[in-house]
């Protein structure tokens, strides 16, 4: 222990710390040089760009950690109610640039390093993405942490520190996805702080011992003792998250699994060396890899282990913090709010009940009332196949005590339902947390609903479906108030200021300040300039610059088989997102074929009228999702044929690009370069979408269905006149599905022609695709591609027409951007804070 009783000693500490926090030029230079020598053991003579990045990163990290410690101390002293955001995914992307911008140190670093012969900005590209997420759900968690920090909320993120993030995608033979491991920690990660001092045991398997009355798990006498058969350690790694223009730095705590002991000494001494090491392997397996499925549950034992490992460690951490306050348990919901990012962490509900009842001796009902007041659940999908269910048999083996608790939760719950609806057994069957069948299953979404005080969807249309369809019986039982909407949002710092500095600067110049970065509704003032000629020109110039830069990236990094550079004068049409049947990339590529066939047969005169287009695709398919991989193959086949068409004039009018390994960092390059982006899911299937917001914020227009957040985006920008809408409405979908399935309506000739062209072998051997295409025209068109197809090319024609009038197009682009204020993640987290968490900002005291 440091002896701080002497005032002089304390003052010395404070003075030195103040020095360390200084970010004047010479302090930055000192810190940088110090890291080059003592962290990296290098010198200016052997320092490459990556080394320079590492030294700079360590120097920035030092700054971050000071503010982070101050924030955490401030929270501890102020002791507000905190919210814990539990997510199995955080899709962070890169950190350094975001960090120096949020902390307002970019210029200082730039200047300091320039004097030393280094261009700070070029070092950003050396950083590997932290890609511990699949798609929208993981990126949403990252955006929310940025906003929570910016608004000084007392929040803490919890997640898993996977050794391997989302796989790296490469395209083999110019057409097929192959997956490579993403070993992102190869060169260590400067943005985390290993907390070997923060570790908890986590148990699995084993048996449950009845209490003395021999009625463990029985109503009225539920306490029992669980004796796990296997233990691992959860070790904390902390990731500091700086807010923008504030001293608040929040924390994301990621758990890594380690063995209880390095190896089993007794087997070691018995000469069983391999066995002694195997235990270490088994433990480390738990957080080894992120499951690469989006909108489909994995159903694997290891995934369930991950989920329990996560909530068990997290709750020990949260309850340890609470216990330091010496408050009665009744205070728990006044100090702790837990947000479940989908059902993935919903075992936390059961775990908290278990800890309260079995370990702290609370009565069942008292404990359960507390649990329900602590938890809230965000639903991200209504697709039935995407809802998590676990076999009771698996749960019983891995978590025997939890399984009994779930049965009890269900029993009490169904009794209360029966009281309201006596004798309605059909209702009990529908609402049971346990699904009966040849294999009993635990419905995690129902567990999450029953164990939470509030359930939210992520866009208005989605929340309506959650209330009226997915959880209809529950809304009837609990009342509508339990089900709320919080429309998703994105952080304008990363998605405009960092990703598109050119547009950010233009907006700031025109608005006269950068206040919009903290209050995005300020953008509405741009509307006044939508027709301003000078402004329009500058606006177009930014888009041109970004398109040229993307064209350059494609030329350098995407295998274009000698096709030459893409024409950055063409209209850039982008669809980048996870590949899924409901997102209908298949419809997009069929539309591309349709356009290609039309151009092929067009006369020279007709061709003069055609707007040149570059179709840009990107996205990963879950490795086990056959149809998604087939769609990637088809896109690439079509691409290869179109781009190699012997008709050079045609090639000027249409071009297809598949950008491999779509990621946060690639999104930051691609999104600012888009003229039009595609959000074309079957109405009622995309919960929200968040890239749609990113595209529009960057002045891109939308082509889309009335689905997810598209609906609200259209409202906020001033109606569907400012975007390109087509397709069936959500209310029509059920009926259309029945029609397609049973009555087989006439298939549109244009669609038939496209399918015939593919089947004829025009895009190579068609045998891999025949099944997929035949299903569409028989009874397998679940996502209604044949139904929406005729109106899709028609909407694309409206896009072309609008693009020809560049003044009109630019006005639309400006008005689109001006309407995006509502879609800031700042607004979303404020909604959560008010409607769900009941927490207030806890800003740091002004620094002396
Ligand atoms: C997405 N969901 C929604 N899931 O599809 C999207 N799933 O509409 C929405 O905007 C976004 O969430 C944010 O609310 C996902 O991204 C997953 O990635 C996922 C991961 C594991 C298991 C299931």
From TrEMBL:
State the reactions this protein catalyses. [(1->4)-alpha-D-glucosyl](n) + phosphate = [(1->4)-alpha-D-glucosyl](n-1) + alpha-D-glucose 1-phosphate
Superkingdom, natural source: Eukaryota
SUPFAM superfamilies found in the cross-reference section: UDP-Glycosyltransferase/glycogen phosphorylase (SSF53756)
Cofactor names from the entry are: pyridoxal 5'-phosphate
Listed under GO biological process in this entry are: glycogen catabolic process
Keywords recorded for this protein, A-Z:
Allosteric enzyme, Carbohydrate metabolism, Glycosyltransferase, Pyridoxal phosphate, Transferase
Q: Which InterPro entries match?
A: Glycg_phsphrylas, Glyco_trans_35, Pyridoxal_P_attach_site
Under Gene Ontology molecular function, one entry of this record is: pyridoxal phosphate binding
Q: Which family does it belong to?
A: Belongs to the glycogen phosphorylase family.
Return the NCBIfam families for the record: P_ylase (TIGR02093)
What does the UniProt record say this protein does? Allosteric enzyme that catalyzes the rate-limiting step in glycogen catabolism, the phosphorolytic cleavage of glycogen to produce glucose-1-phosphate, and plays a central role in maintaining cellular and organismal glucose homeostasis.
Per its record, how is this protein called by name?
Answer: Alpha-1,4 glucan phosphorylase
Q: Which species does the entry assign this protein to?
A: Fonticula alba
């Amino acid at each position: 222990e440091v002896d701080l009783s002497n005032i002089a000693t304390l003052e010395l500490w404070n003075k030195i710390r103040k020095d360390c926090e200084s970010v004047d030029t010479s302090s930055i230079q000192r810190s940088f040089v110090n890291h080059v020598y003592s962290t990296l053991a290098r010198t200016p003579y052997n320092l490459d760009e990556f080394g320079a990045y590492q030294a700079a990163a360590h120097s920035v990290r030092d700054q971050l950690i000071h503010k982070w410690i101050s924030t955490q101390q401030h929270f501890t002293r102020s002791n507000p109610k905190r919210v814990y955001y539990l997510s199995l995914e955080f899709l962070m992307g890169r950190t350094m640039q975001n960090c120096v911008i949020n902390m307002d140190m970019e210029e200082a670093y730039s200047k300091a390093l320039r004097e030393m012969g280094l261009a700070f900005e070029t070092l950003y590209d050396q950083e590997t993405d932290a890609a511990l997420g699949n798609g929208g759900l993981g990126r949403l968690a990252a955006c929310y942490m940025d906003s929570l920090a910016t608004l000084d909320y007392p929040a803490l993120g919890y997640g898993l520190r996977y050794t391997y993030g989302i796989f790296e995608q490469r395209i083999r033979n110019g057409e097929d996805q192959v997956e490579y491991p993403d070993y992102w920690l190869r060169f260590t990660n400067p943005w985390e702080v290993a907390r070997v001092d923060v570790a908890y045991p986590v148990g699995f398997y084993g048996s449950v011992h009845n209490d003395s009355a021999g009625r463990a798990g029985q109503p009225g006498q539920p306490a029992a003792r669980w004796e796990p058969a296997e233990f691992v350690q959860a070790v904390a790694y902390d990731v500091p998250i700086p807010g923008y223009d504030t001293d608040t730095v929040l924390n994301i705590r990621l758990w890594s699994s380690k063995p209880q002991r390095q190896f089993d000494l007794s087997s070691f001494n018995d000469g069983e060396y391999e066995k002694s090491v195997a235990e270490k392997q088994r433990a480390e397996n738990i957080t080894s890899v992120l499951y690469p499925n989006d909108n489909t549950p994995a159903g694997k034992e290891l995934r369930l282990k991950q989920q329990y490992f996560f909530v068990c460690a997290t709750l020990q951490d949260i309850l340890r913090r609470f216990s330091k306050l010496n408050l009665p348990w009744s205070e728990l919901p006044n100090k702790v709010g837990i947000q479940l990012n989908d059902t993935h962490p919903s075992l936390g509900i059961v775990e908290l009940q278990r800890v309260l009842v079995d370990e702290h001796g609370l009565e069942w009902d008292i404990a359960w009332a507390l649990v329900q007041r602590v938890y809230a659940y965000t639903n991200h999908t209504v697709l039935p196949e995407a809802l998590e269910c676990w076999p009771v048999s698996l749960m019983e083996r891995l978590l025997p005590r939890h399984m009994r608790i779930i049965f009890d939760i269900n029993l009490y719950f169904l009794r209360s339902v029966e009281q309201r609806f006596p004798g309605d057994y059909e209702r009990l069957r529908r609402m049971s947390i346990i699904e009966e069948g040849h294999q009993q299953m635990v419905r995690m979404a129902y567990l999450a609903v029953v164990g939470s005080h509030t359930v939210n969807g992520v866009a208005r249309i989605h929340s309506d479906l959650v209330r009226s369809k997915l959880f209809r019986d529950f809304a009837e039982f609990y009342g509508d108030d339990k089900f709320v909407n919080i429309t998703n949002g994105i952080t304008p710092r990363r998605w405009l200021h960092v990703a598109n500095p050119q547009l950010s600067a233009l907006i700031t110049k025109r608005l006269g300040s950068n206040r919009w970065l903290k209050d995005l509704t300020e953008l509405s003032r741009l509307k006044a300039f939508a027709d301003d000629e000078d402004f329009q020109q500058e606006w177009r110039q930014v888009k041109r610059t970004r398109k040229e830069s993307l064209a350059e990236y494609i030329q350098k990094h995407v295998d274009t088989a000698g096709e030459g550079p893409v024409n950055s004068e063409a209209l850039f049409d982008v669809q980048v997102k996870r590949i899924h049947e409901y997102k209908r990339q298949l419809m997009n590529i069929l539309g591309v074929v349709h356009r290609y066939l039309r151009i092929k047969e067009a006369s020279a005169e007709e061709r003069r009228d055609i707007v040149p287009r570059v179709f840009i695709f990107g996205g990963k398919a879950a490795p086990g999702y056959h149809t998604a991989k087939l769609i990637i193959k088809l896109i690439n086949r079509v691409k290869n044929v179109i781009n190699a068409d012997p008709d050079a004039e045609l090639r000027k009018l249409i071009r297809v690009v598949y950008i491999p390994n779509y990621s946060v960092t690639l999104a930051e390059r691609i999104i600012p370069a888009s003229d039009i982006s595609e959000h074309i899911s079957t109405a009622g299937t995309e919960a929200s979408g968040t890239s749609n917001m990113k595209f529009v914020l960057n002045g891109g227009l939308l082509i889309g269905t009335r689905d997810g957040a598209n609906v609200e985006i259209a409202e906020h920008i001033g109606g569907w006149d400012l975007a390109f809408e087509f397709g069936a409405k959500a209310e029509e979908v059920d009926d259309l599905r029945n029609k397609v399935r049973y009555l087989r309506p006439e298939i549109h000739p244009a669609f038939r022609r496209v399918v015939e062209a593919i089947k004829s072998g025009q895009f190579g051997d068609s045998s891999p695709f025949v099944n997929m295409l035949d299903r569409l025209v028989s009874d397998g068109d679940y996502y209604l591609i044949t139904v929406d197809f005729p109106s899709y090319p028609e909407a694309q024609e409206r896009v072309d027409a609008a693009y020809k009038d560049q003044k009109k197009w630019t006005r639309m682009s400006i008005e689109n951007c001006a309407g995006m204020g509502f879609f800031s993640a700042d607004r979303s987290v404020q909604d959560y804070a008010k409607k769900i968490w009941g927490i207030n900002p806890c800003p740091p005291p002004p620094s002396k």
